[in-house]
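Quick one, T. Sequence first:
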Amino acid sequence: MNVRARHRGDYFIAFIDDFTRFGHVYLISHKSEAFNCFNRYTNLVENKLNTRIKALRTDQGNEYLFEQFKKFYDEKGIARQLTIPYTPQQNSIA
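Structure tokens:
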């Protein structure tokens, strides 16, 4: 069942730390907003928890494979871990 958020978001994206279980959910209108959300989450983790993200585990969705994401991974030293397709329960941050 499709549920539309108050701000017209059709999707959500959640980032959850494997170790601490610290996480955040973002409501988005387009999957192309994934990079902006991850950038905001990265800043939140670095400023609030005084640590850095070491790895991002995602499915092989195109929203995570844009060149902008790849450049950000390299700049921040974040390892990319791709899961097998159709396993969204595996998405998390290490």
